[in-house]
Specification:
elongated, 2 domains, binds guanosine-5'-triphosphate, Rossmann fold, single chain, binds magnesium ion
Length: 270
Protein backbone atom coordinates (compact mmCIF):
# COMPACT_ATOMS: atom_id res chain seq x y z
CA UNK A 1 0.00 0.00 0.00
CA UNK A 2 1.29 3.47 -0.86
CA UNK A 3 1.59 5.83 2.09
CA UNK A 4 1.06 9.52 1.60
CA UNK A 5 2.40 12.43 3.60
CA UNK A 6 1.79 16.15 3.49
CA UNK A 7 4.73 18.46 4.05
CA UNK A 8 4.36 22.21 4.32
CA UNK A 9 7.15 24.55 3.38
CA UNK A 10 6.92 27.96 4.96
CA UNK A 11 8.87 31.15 5.55
CA UNK A 12 8.70 34.77 4.48
CA UNK A 13 8.81 36.02 0.87
CA UNK A 14 11.78 35.46 -1.44
CA UNK A 15 13.65 33.16 0.94
CA UNK A 16 13.89 30.53 -1.81
CA UNK A 17 11.02 28.11 -1.12
CA UNK A 18 9.67 27.71 -4.64
CA UNK A 19 13.11 27.69 -6.27
CA UNK A 20 14.10 24.89 -3.91
CA UNK A 21 11.00 22.88 -4.84
CA UNK A 22 11.65 23.53 -8.51
CA UNK A 23 15.05 21.97 -7.98
CA UNK A 24 13.53 19.04 -6.10
CA UNK A 25 11.23 18.18 -8.98
CA UNK A 26 13.24 19.33 -12.04
CA UNK A 27 16.81 18.85 -10.82
CA UNK A 28 17.98 22.20 -12.08
CA UNK A 29 18.11 25.77 -10.84
CA UNK A 30 14.93 27.52 -11.97
CA UNK A 31 14.69 30.88 -10.15
CA UNK A 32 11.06 31.44 -9.19
CA UNK A 33 9.05 34.63 -9.06
CA UNK A 34 6.90 35.61 -6.10
CA UNK A 35 4.30 32.91 -5.44
CA UNK A 36 0.89 34.53 -5.53
CA UNK A 37 -1.08 31.84 -3.75
CA UNK A 38 -0.51 28.13 -3.37
CA UNK A 39 1.63 25.71 -5.33
CA UNK A 40 1.86 21.99 -4.86
CA UNK A 41 4.63 19.60 -5.71
CA UNK A 42 4.62 15.84 -5.66
CA UNK A 43 7.50 13.46 -5.15
CA UNK A 44 7.67 9.71 -4.89
CA UNK A 45 10.02 8.12 -2.38
CA UNK A 46 10.92 4.58 -1.59
CA UNK A 47 11.62 4.30 2.09
CA UNK A 48 12.51 0.86 3.39
CA UNK A 49 10.76 -0.86 0.49
CA UNK A 50 7.69 1.21 1.07
CA UNK A 51 6.33 3.50 -1.66
CA UNK A 52 5.56 6.93 -0.24
CA UNK A 53 3.88 9.77 -2.08
CA UNK A 54 4.91 13.12 -0.69
CA UNK A 55 2.74 16.12 -1.37
CA UNK A 56 4.62 19.33 -0.70
CA UNK A 57 2.64 22.50 -0.22
CA UNK A 58 4.19 25.86 -0.98
CA UNK A 59 2.35 29.02 -0.01
CA UNK A 60 3.62 32.49 -0.91
CA UNK A 61 5.39 34.15 2.00
CA UNK A 62 3.65 37.50 1.62
CA UNK A 63 1.77 38.66 4.72
CA UNK A 64 -1.38 39.02 2.68
CA UNK A 65 -1.56 35.21 2.61
CA UNK A 66 -1.37 34.85 6.39
CA UNK A 67 -5.14 34.44 6.64
CA UNK A 68 -4.83 31.26 4.54
CA UNK A 69 -2.18 29.65 6.70
CA UNK A 70 -4.62 28.00 9.10
CA UNK A 71 -5.98 25.93 6.27
CA UNK A 72 -2.50 25.43 4.88
CA UNK A 73 -1.15 23.69 8.00
CA UNK A 74 -4.11 21.36 8.43
CA UNK A 75 -3.12 17.70 8.19
CA UNK A 76 0.57 18.46 7.66
CA UNK A 77 2.97 15.94 9.12
CA UNK A 78 6.15 17.94 8.82
CA UNK A 79 7.18 21.58 8.41
CA UNK A 80 10.22 22.71 6.44
CA UNK A 81 10.81 26.14 7.91
CA UNK A 82 12.81 28.30 5.54
CA UNK A 83 14.89 31.44 5.96
CA UNK A 84 17.38 33.13 3.68
CA UNK A 85 20.92 32.94 5.10
CA UNK A 86 21.67 36.38 3.61
CA UNK A 87 18.71 38.18 5.24
CA UNK A 88 18.47 38.47 9.00
CA UNK A 89 14.84 39.61 8.99
CA UNK A 90 13.78 36.37 7.26
CA UNK A 91 15.26 34.53 10.27
CA UNK A 92 13.67 36.87 12.84
CA UNK A 93 10.21 36.12 11.51
CA UNK A 94 10.38 32.35 12.00
CA UNK A 95 8.70 32.48 15.44
CA UNK A 96 5.40 33.23 13.79
CA UNK A 97 5.48 29.99 11.77
CA UNK A 98 6.59 27.90 14.73
CA UNK A 99 3.57 29.14 16.71
CA UNK A 100 1.30 28.27 13.79
CA UNK A 101 2.78 24.77 13.58
CA UNK A 102 2.19 24.26 17.31
CA UNK A 103 -1.44 25.32 16.89
CA UNK A 104 -1.77 22.55 14.29
CA UNK A 105 -0.13 19.85 16.36
CA UNK A 106 3.12 19.80 14.45
CA UNK A 107 5.58 19.21 17.24
CA UNK A 108 9.05 20.74 17.07
CA UNK A 109 10.61 17.34 16.34
CA UNK A 110 8.72 17.46 13.03
CA UNK A 111 10.26 20.78 12.04
CA UNK A 112 13.31 21.05 9.81
CA UNK A 113 15.01 24.43 9.93
CA UNK A 114 16.32 25.24 6.48
CA UNK A 115 18.74 28.03 5.57
CA UNK A 116 18.47 28.62 1.80
CA UNK A 117 20.99 30.14 -0.66
CA UNK A 118 24.00 28.59 1.05
CA UNK A 119 26.03 29.18 -2.12
CA UNK A 120 26.16 32.83 -1.00
CA UNK A 121 27.45 31.95 2.46
CA UNK A 122 31.06 33.01 2.04
CA UNK A 123 30.17 36.61 1.14
CA UNK A 124 26.74 37.29 2.49
CA UNK A 125 25.92 35.05 5.46
CA UNK A 126 23.90 37.26 7.81
CA UNK A 127 23.15 34.87 10.68
CA UNK A 128 25.86 33.34 12.81
CA UNK A 129 25.85 29.64 13.66
CA UNK A 130 25.65 30.55 17.37
CA UNK A 131 22.46 32.54 16.76
CA UNK A 132 21.00 29.59 14.87
CA UNK A 133 21.90 27.15 17.62
CA UNK A 134 20.46 29.41 20.34
CA UNK A 135 17.26 29.71 18.36
CA UNK A 136 17.05 25.94 17.97
CA UNK A 137 17.71 25.30 21.63
CA UNK A 138 15.06 27.84 22.61
CA UNK A 139 12.42 26.22 20.38
CA UNK A 140 13.59 22.68 20.90
CA UNK A 141 14.25 22.14 17.20
CA UNK A 142 16.86 19.50 16.49
CA UNK A 143 17.33 19.44 12.72
CA UNK A 144 19.06 22.26 10.91
CA UNK A 145 20.07 22.15 7.26
CA UNK A 146 21.57 24.62 4.85
CA UNK A 147 20.74 24.21 1.22
CA UNK A 148 21.40 25.70 -2.16
CA UNK A 149 19.09 25.39 -5.13
CA UNK A 150 21.81 26.93 -7.28
CA UNK A 151 24.19 24.13 -6.39
CA UNK A 152 21.51 21.52 -5.84
CA UNK A 153 22.68 20.78 -2.32
CA UNK A 154 20.76 19.16 0.52
CA UNK A 155 17.40 19.35 -1.18
CA UNK A 156 16.61 15.76 -2.16
CA UNK A 157 17.86 14.38 1.12
CA UNK A 158 15.95 16.96 3.16
CA UNK A 159 12.64 16.02 1.63
CA UNK A 160 13.41 12.34 1.95
CA UNK A 161 14.05 12.93 5.62
CA UNK A 162 10.91 15.07 5.96
CA UNK A 163 8.92 12.27 4.31
CA UNK A 164 10.35 9.71 6.70
CA UNK A 165 9.56 11.97 9.65
CA UNK A 166 6.01 12.34 8.40
CA UNK A 167 5.35 8.61 8.25
CA UNK A 168 3.53 6.98 11.13
CA UNK A 169 6.06 5.44 13.47
CA UNK A 170 5.18 1.82 12.87
CA UNK A 171 7.52 -1.15 12.77
CA UNK A 172 8.32 -0.46 9.10
CA UNK A 173 9.94 2.77 10.05
CA UNK A 174 11.36 3.67 13.39
CA UNK A 175 13.45 6.26 15.10
CA UNK A 176 16.63 4.33 14.35
CA UNK A 177 16.10 4.58 10.60
CA UNK A 178 15.29 8.26 10.85
CA UNK A 179 18.53 8.86 12.70
CA UNK A 180 20.39 6.94 9.96
CA UNK A 181 18.89 9.28 7.38
CA UNK A 182 19.91 12.25 9.48
CA UNK A 183 23.47 10.97 9.61
CA UNK A 184 23.51 10.71 5.82
CA UNK A 185 22.34 14.27 5.64
CA UNK A 186 24.98 15.55 7.98
CA UNK A 187 27.67 14.13 5.70
CA UNK A 188 26.13 15.99 2.82
CA UNK A 189 26.07 19.22 4.80
CA UNK A 190 29.70 18.86 5.73
CA UNK A 191 30.43 18.40 2.08
CA UNK A 192 29.33 21.95 1.36
CA UNK A 193 30.91 23.71 4.32
CA UNK A 194 32.35 27.06 3.27
CA UNK A 195 35.85 25.65 3.58
CA UNK A 196 34.97 22.94 1.11
CA UNK A 197 33.56 25.19 -1.55
CA UNK A 198 36.85 25.92 -3.25
CA UNK A 199 37.89 22.24 -3.74
CA UNK A 200 34.44 21.81 -5.20
CA UNK A 201 35.08 24.60 -7.67
CA UNK A 202 38.49 23.07 -8.43
CA UNK A 203 36.81 19.78 -9.19
CA UNK A 204 34.41 21.58 -11.50
CA UNK A 205 37.30 23.26 -13.27
CA UNK A 206 39.07 19.93 -13.60
CA UNK A 207 35.99 18.46 -15.26
CA UNK A 208 35.63 21.41 -17.63
CA UNK A 209 39.31 21.02 -18.56
CA UNK A 210 38.83 17.29 -19.10
CA UNK A 211 35.83 17.95 -21.29
CA UNK A 212 37.81 20.44 -23.38
CA UNK A 213 40.58 17.87 -23.87
CA UNK A 214 38.03 15.30 -24.97
CA UNK A 215 36.58 17.78 -27.43
CA UNK A 216 40.07 18.54 -28.83
CA UNK A 217 40.68 14.84 -29.28
CA UNK A 218 37.42 14.66 -31.15
CA UNK A 219 38.39 17.48 -33.49
CA UNK A 220 41.96 16.43 -34.29
CA UNK A 221 42.25 12.85 -33.18
CA UNK A 222 39.72 10.80 -35.15
CA UNK A 223 39.73 9.54 -38.77
CA UNK A 224 36.53 11.34 -39.63
CA UNK A 225 38.11 14.60 -38.75
CA UNK A 226 40.95 14.12 -41.23
CA UNK A 227 38.27 15.21 -43.69
CA UNK A 228 37.89 18.44 -41.74
CA UNK A 229 41.66 18.97 -41.94
CA UNK A 230 41.69 18.33 -45.74
CA UNK A 231 38.78 20.74 -46.22
CA UNK A 232 40.71 23.30 -44.18
CA UNK A 233 43.80 22.87 -46.43
CA UNK A 234 41.61 23.16 -49.51
CA UNK A 235 40.26 26.44 -48.27
CA UNK A 236 43.78 27.78 -47.66
CA UNK A 237 44.84 26.79 -51.22
CA UNK A 238 41.74 28.40 -52.69
CA UNK A 239 42.42 31.63 -50.81
CA UNK A 240 46.07 31.53 -51.95
CA UNK A 241 45.02 31.07 -55.59
CA UNK A 242 42.62 33.98 -55.34
CA UNK A 243 45.40 36.09 -53.89
CA UNK A 244 47.76 34.92 -56.67
CA UNK A 245 45.26 36.02 -59.26
CA UNK A 246 45.03 39.48 -57.70
CA UNK A 247 48.85 39.71 -57.46
CA UNK A 248 49.36 38.66 -61.07
CA UNK A 249 46.97 41.35 -62.09
CA UNK A 250 48.89 43.86 -59.94
CA UNK A 251 52.22 42.63 -61.45
CA UNK A 252 50.98 43.33 -64.91
CA UNK A 253 50.12 46.85 -63.83
CA UNK A 254 52.89 47.76 -61.29
CA UNK A 255 55.96 45.42 -61.64
CA UNK A 256 57.71 42.64 -59.61
CA UNK A 257 57.48 43.71 -55.94
CA UNK A 258 53.94 42.34 -55.29
CA UNK A 259 54.99 38.86 -56.56
CA UNK A 260 57.75 38.79 -53.95
CA UNK A 261 55.17 39.67 -51.27
CA UNK A 262 52.99 36.81 -52.49
CA UNK A 263 55.81 34.25 -52.09
CA UNK A 264 56.47 35.49 -48.53
CA UNK A 265 52.78 35.10 -47.66
CA UNK A 266 52.66 31.53 -49.03
CA UNK A 267 55.85 30.55 -47.13
CA UNK A 268 54.44 32.01 -43.89
CA UNK A 269 51.17 30.11 -44.35
CA UNK A 270 53.04 26.80 -44.81
N1 LIG B 1 21.98 32.36 -5.08
C1 LIG B 1 20.80 31.72 -4.87
N2 LIG B 1 19.66 32.37 -5.13
C2 LIG B 1 18.50 31.71 -4.91
C3 LIG B 1 18.47 30.38 -4.42
N3 LIG B 1 17.18 30.02 -4.29
C4 LIG B 1 16.45 31.06 -4.68
N4 LIG B 1 17.22 32.08 -5.04
C5 LIG B 1 16.80 33.40 -5.53
O1 LIG B 1 15.82 33.91 -4.65
C6 LIG B 1 14.71 34.39 -5.40
C7 LIG B 1 13.45 34.15 -4.60
O2 LIG B 1 13.21 32.77 -4.56
P1 LIG B 1 11.72 32.15 -4.50
O3 LIG B 1 11.89 30.70 -4.68
O4 LIG B 1 10.78 32.86 -5.36
O5 LIG B 1 11.35 32.49 -2.99
P2 LIG B 1 10.00 32.13 -2.23
O6 LIG B 1 10.38 31.86 -0.82
O7 LIG B 1 9.25 31.08 -2.95
O8 LIG B 1 9.22 33.52 -2.30
P3 LIG B 1 7.61 33.76 -2.18
O9 LIG B 1 6.98 32.95 -3.25
O10 LIG B 1 7.44 35.21 -2.35
O11 LIG B 1 7.21 33.31 -0.81
C8 LIG B 1 14.76 33.63 -6.72
O12 LIG B 1 14.28 34.36 -7.78
C9 LIG B 1 16.21 33.30 -6.91
O13 LIG B 1 16.80 34.28 -7.71
C10 LIG B 1 19.73 29.73 -4.17
O14 LIG B 1 19.83 28.59 -3.73
N5 LIG B 1 20.86 30.45 -4.41
MG1 LIG C 1 7.40 31.04 -3.81
Amino acid sequence: MTESVKIVVDGRGAVGKTTMLNYLTEHRFIPARVTLGLKMFMKQYQILNQEVTTIIWDLGGLRSFDSLRDLYYQGATCLVLVYDITRYNSFEELDYFIDLAAEHNISTDKIILMGCKYDLASDEQAISQITIEEFMAYHNITIEIKSSARRGRNIDSTFELATAMGLPQNNLFNVHEISQLKEGLIEEIEHIDIGNLSPEIQELQRRVHQERLERKKLIYGTKENVITAIAHCGLVVLLALMRAKILMKTYNEFGRAPIFNFIVVIVLKI
